[in-house]
Amino acid sequence: MSASPHQECFHCGLPVPDDLDLKVEILDEQRPMCCMGCQAVAQAIVENNLEDYYRHRTEKAQVGEALVPDALRDLELYDNENLQQSFVHVQGGEIREASLILEGIVCAACVWLSERHVNTLPGVQSFYVNYSTHRAQVTWDNSQIHLSAILQAINEIGYHAHPFDPSRQEALQKKERNRALRRIGIAGVGTMQVMMMAVAMYLGEYQDMDDSIRKLLRWASLVVTIPVITYSGQAFFQSAWRDLRQGRLGMDVPVSLAIGTAFIASAWATWTNTGHVYYDSVTMFTFFLLIGRTLEMTARHKAGQVAEELVKLMPATAHRKTATGIEPVPVAELVVGDHLVVKPGEVVPADGVVIEGSSSINEALLTGESLPRKKQPGDTVIGGTINMESPLTIEVDKIGQDSVLAGISRLLERAHAEKPRVAELANRVAGWFVTALLLVAVVVYAYWYFRAPEDAFWITLSVLVITCPCALSLATPVALTAATGMLTRHGVLTTRGHALETLAKATDIIFDKTGTLTYGQLKLVEVARLADRDEPWLRGLAAGLEGYSEHPIATALKEGVEPMVLEVIESETGRGVLGRYDGNYYRLGSLDFIREWHPEFAPEQTVGTWIYLASQEAVLGGFHFSDEPREEAAEVIRQLEAQGITVHLLSGDNEAAVAAVASRLGISRHRARQLPDDKLDYVRRLQAEGKIVAMVGDGVNDAPVLAGAQVSIAMGTGAQLAQASADMVLLSDHLDVLPFSVTIARKALSIIRQNIVWAIGYNVIALPLAAAGYILPWMAAIGMSGSSLFVVLNALRLKDKR
Amino acid sequence: MEILFILVPLAVILAAVAIAAFVMTVKSGQYDDLDGAAHRILMDDDDPMIPKYKGKSLQDKK
């Protein structure tokens, strides 16, 4: 970083404009700043003796925003008692507690900085940032400081904090997580103890153990196993009970039956000092199953947390236009018919109709479409979308549950409820298995009751124990757990247990185009030289003209070029920019905009998105933008087809664009102009033909389709709603993990099959022997533990691969 | 072997203690943020002991 004409901002790393000379002294040196916002933030950090932040940080900060008085007034709304009711927890007296979502946290130093700064405020009792979730917990004394002052202090050092209500979901998740942890902990400690005593007892079978010592070990095992059964095992008993009440035989029924009978038999044996005990199998089985379930739950929560951030899509405050002026109000108090002012950069707070002003609105959240839409008076706008360019006045027409966003959430829930359940197959098999098992047990008991009544109970018990479907019910979850862990390390989050099994069987895979097969961002693909200017000059000038715009075209133009410094005179929404460079005037914009200067201008190529650059004398150049397919897409599709999966492409885009992408990537089955309903129909038709469909998508518009396919995969950068409805999320945002996931899923499926064959084979051989009374109880115990262990070890083979 | 009559119940009691300790750690929220602590320890409260870095800062030494 020398003193070159283009310096980097010390705070955020963006280039510093030439004519700007803002400096802040940080770590004993004068550092350049790119804007007033960064300067203010850096100044605040230095003044609060927190400049060590710059020493510790590993990432550049986000651009600082200068706080305008308006924004401060908005923050004060959070002091409103009515609004606070929804997210503040009063701890008695004036002590209050709130949860905040922090935006702008990029590295650990940010956590340090914000904690340090907020904790020094008088009246703040504690402020703690959770680094994994970017949530903060603040406790303050309302008689000394107001929430708005705390939020403002956070803004001062360059972060944004929104209060949110954790009770909706997060508190529930935390409770669920803590309960799962406690269950695992108890089962784990219990397993270790019981195993230790079990080894002694097994050895005792050979070495004449003293009867009193055996009795002691049995009673000690019983004491340790009781909490494992009553607390950790509850998870299975409860859901088995739920299944039974609904008249279904789920997987938890045999699990509960196995744990239950083995435990009761052992307890009976301990009490009467006869027979054999199976405490080791009971605890180990509980422990392994709980681990698998907890991992699955954690992944589901992670995806859910992302979805929770949908809450912050809707701002908490809005600007209402009244007869006397503009007043800030909490969104919760809005009524239909209110007139709201939405400033550029703000999120539209409610659904409504534009009545004044024109601007472009980014609806990427809802449509996945990267290009902003132009809005004029009469057009409808949707709450949660972002106003990009100029102020709009809107009239509210739908609020709360009637809003589009709430509607999408409901649609999603319904689609979920109707989701085809391939996973149920395993449950049905287990149901049959249990029924058969119980019948056999009854027959065996009846037979022995007439032949040798004193042996009947023990023989029936050993039948029940030896055929206990432990190995069978472990077969699937352990393999899935191993495969899920493997995929998570490669950046694929599996949020639902059945996803892998289904993915392994998938026959067809459907891709969305924008954002999935393509980057979802416009890229400059071609520069046409229409006069004697070279390409770098054209690009530099164009980048300079678009210097202050956040429009996707502007972003694409600015990528990788040094923008020329010039004077932007005028910019017209959706049309173009007029600027002056070196004494000459230039226009950059749409064909219409250029034709105002050069009415006779007719470009040779018109396919795709083009904008032009012209001086007053001539049209100088054209820029062609397109949304490029991902680099790895073609290879990924080739690999998927090699794996025997049929690839389809469904897109909402026009025929030409879809056909072009499809032919470049070698996809023969493609459809254009597909609405979400059409896509869902297409999926249903395939399903009716008996195909198992996987869907890969990214937008909120894809969410219902994602929910409708047997297995759905969302892109990590896609809309949060899409991720929430997907079975798997590609966190790395690279498609090339897809064929790998299929490979792993298939491997997992083959291991599941091996495990099931083993488990059933073992039962088939052991059952007649046990029924005939040939199996001694200790053999039953070893057989049961052994077959479970075999299944676990077999699943662990998945981890060694690659 | 009579010693087992003391040792085995002792093992059970120790297991109970271990479970109690674990439940307490869960309750106090020690598993809520598994990544934060690792970073936090690198940059806390020990500022007076770090000699002020004179001259060029670490940020510029790329």
Secondary structure elements and their pairing?
The complex is a heterodimer of chains A (802) and B (62).
Chain A: E1 22-26, E2 29-33, H1 36-47, H2 52-56, H3 69-76, H4 81-84, E3 88-90, E4 95-103, H5 108-119, E5 124-130, E6 135-141, H6 147-156, E7 160-164, H7 170-206, H8 211-232, H9 234-245, H10 252-272, H11 279-308, E8 317-322, E9 325-330, E10 339-342, E11 351-356, E12 359-362, H12 364-367, E13 373-375, E14 380-381, E15 386-387, E16 392-398, H13 404-417, H14 424-451, H15 453-466, H16 470-489, E17 492-494, H17 499-505, E18 508-512, H18 513-517, E19 518-529, H19 535-545, H20 552-558, E20 567-572, E21 576-581, E22 584-589, H21 591-595, E23 609-615, E24 619-629, H22 633-642, E25 646-650, H23 655-665, E26 669-671, H24 676-688, E27 693-697, H25 703-708, E28 711-715, H26 720-725, E29 728-730, H27 737-771, H28 777-800
Parallel strand pairs in A: 18-25, 18-27, 25-26, 27-28, 28-29
Antiparallel strand pairs in A: 1-2, 3-4, 4-6, 4-7, 5-6, 8-9, 8-10, 10-16, 11-14, 11-16, 12-13, 12-15, 17-29, 19-24, 20-21, 21-22, 22-23, 23-24
Chain B: H1 4-27, H2 36-40
Question: What keywords describe this structure?
Answer:
heterodimer, A: alpha+beta, six-stranded antiparallel sheet, 29 strands, B: 62 residues, disordered C terminus
Quick structural summary:
The complex is a heterodimer of chains A (802) and B (62). With 802 residues, chain A is an alpha+beta fold.
